[in-house]
Amino acid sequence: MINLELPKKLRASANQAHQVAAEIFRPVSRKYDLAEHEYPIELDTMAAMIEGLSDSGTQDISGATGGRKAEGAESDEHATELLGNSNGGNMSALLNALETCWGDAGLMLSIPYQGLGNAAIAAVSTDEQLARFGKVWAAMAITEPSFGSDSAAVTATATLDGDEWVLNGTKIFVTAGSRATHIVVWASVDRSAGRAAIKSFVVPRDAKGLTVSRLEHKLGIKASDTAEIRFEDCRIPADNILGSPEVNVEKGFAGVMQTFDNTRPLVAAMAVGVGRAALEELRTVLEDAGVEISYDKPANNQHAAAAEFLRLEADWESAYLLSLRAAWMADNKKPNSLEASMSKAKAGRMGTDVTLKAVELAGATGYSQRPLLEKWARDSKILDIFEGTQQIQQLIVARRVLNLSSDKLK
Ligand SMILES: Cc1cc2nc3c(=O)[nH]c(=O)nc-3n(C[C@H](O)[C@H](O)[C@H](O)COP(=O)(O)OP(=O)(O)OC[C@H]3O[C@@H](n4cnc5c(N)ncnc54)[C@H](O)[C@@H]3O)c2cc1C
Questions:
Q1: CB of 385 sitting under 6 A from ligand 1
Q2: How many CB atoms lie within 10 A of CB 52?
């Protein structure tokens, strides 16, 4: 029989993340929504907490590091009682991302030392690199002015010169790009070799030749800084390349793409967290208005708003379960590209549908700035865009289901 209950150990760390969300994020959520680009000083409290949690072996509050830690740190593997069935770093990361986004998605993306670049480092670094980069705060820079969805179209270059790589190019929309201590940058080591030559590099933000050239103004997640970064003859040590420097045309850019199998379920979980926040608030608004939501009566025998609520909750539940499955597969070393994209496609759409419908059902109150409903509707849209848009996830799912290559199905 399937047991959908969370193991005890995972519940403890999810509760801890929930506490951070409820006690640190929620009280300042509106403040930083209205003060875009202002540095949330509460993050310093977070940084101190993370340091403390790190000492106690549970530092992955947002979940971005996927539970992998620098050498010497205790492993996050939580083997369950069930035979051969393991819930490890990915599952723990997913639950933490969900809980912290229930608090505030923009602040979650600003949690020190928990950037998407950290997920890339955790996914593909060697043990030696993990020892060097396991405790940095790393943003992730893939997108360029000339492309977004088509990650094979990288034009930034990395040229080996003696024992250094020399980076040139421009990256845009880098989350935490002005706050992180390091940036994981995708660049080509040989433009003539196509996608196989795309590699990722860990670049300290204070490296000479790296400039944060502007910050974006956005629809939502305003507490999160989104930066444009220029690299002009930016030099980094040769061993700051993640994975092998070898260009293997057979393998394509599977190495760098591997990161997405871990990060997409996390972004799906972020949408699940924001969706749950909206559903909880909506339930209160409806109950205050005298609308009874019953799980015993059929939906067609209830108030129209209650029936709609039940539909939204079912949609939310399916997104949640798809994300759990994708993370569970990653923890159990099962190939999960299809399931990771399925979870992100479903959760991304659910997040925008649920939050916008919650605004609608709460009426004028929902549209006002009194509750956070309208903020969550603005925040959730990004979760259906970054780490691969809704359309790109559907494309990946279609390719996998139909067994068609990216050349055949574009
Ligand atoms: C707030 C924010 C934070 C971000 N953070 C980061 C970050 O940290 N690091 C980073 O590297 N990037 C980041 N991004 C960039 C993000 O990943 C890209 O915006 C995203 O990949 C989409 O690329 P694009 O905007 O160029 O859209 P495009 O690729 O130009 O797509 C435009 C539209 O066309 C659709 N489309 C594209 N190709 C196809 C196709 N083959 N079939 C069907 N439809 C298609 C897309 O789904 C989309 O609806 C961020 C963006 C934002 C807004």
A1: yes
A2: 11
Q: Residue with structure tokens 């045309």? A: 249
Q: Residue 384 C-alpha to ligand 1 middle, in angstroms? A: 9
Residue 382 Cβ contacting ligand 1 at under 6 Å:
yes
Quick one: DSSP state of residue 308? H
Contact present, 92 and 12 (Cβ < 8 Å): no
As beta bridge partners, residue 139 has: 183
Confidence of residue 78 (pLDDT cuts 50, 70, 90): very low
Q: What angle do CA 392, 151, 141 make, to 5 degrees?
A: 115
Of 205, 268, 276, give the one whose Cα is nearest residue 234: 205
Task: Count CB atoms within 10 A of the CB of residue 148.
Answer: 17
- What pLDDT digit, counting tens, does each position of 261-302 carry? 989 999 999 999 999 999 999 999 999 999 999 999 999 999
* pLDDT of the residue at 154: 96
174 lines ligand 1 (CB under 6 A): yes
Confidence (pTM): 0.93
In short, whether 140's Cβ falls inside 6 Å of ligand 1 is yes
Rounded CA separation 10/5 (Å): 10
Cross-strand bridge partners of residue 199: 187
Q: What is the pLDDT of residue 43?
A: 87
**Distance between Cα 164 and ligand 1 center (Å):** 31
How many residues comprise the chain? 410
Atom number in ligand 1 closest to CA 390: 47
CB 97 within 8 A of CB 269: yes
Which residue shows structure tokens 């340091």? 51
pLDDT at 54 over 60: no
Q: What are the structure tokens assigned to 245, written together?
A: 């420097």
Nearest protein CA to atom 44 of ligand 1, as residue: 391
Cβ atoms within 10 Å of 146's Cβ, excluding its own:
12
Ligand 1: which of 201, 385, 393 to mutate, judged by most atoms within 8 Å of the beta carbon? Answer: 385
Residue whose CA is closest, atom 17 of ligand 1?
386
Which residue's structure tokens are 């530092």?
59
Computed over every residue of the chain, the mean pLDDT equals: 90
Residue 189 per-residue DSSP state: S
For a substitution probing ligand 1, which of 62, 149, 397 has the most ligand atoms within 8 Å of its CB? 149
Residue 141 or residue 262, greater confidence: 141
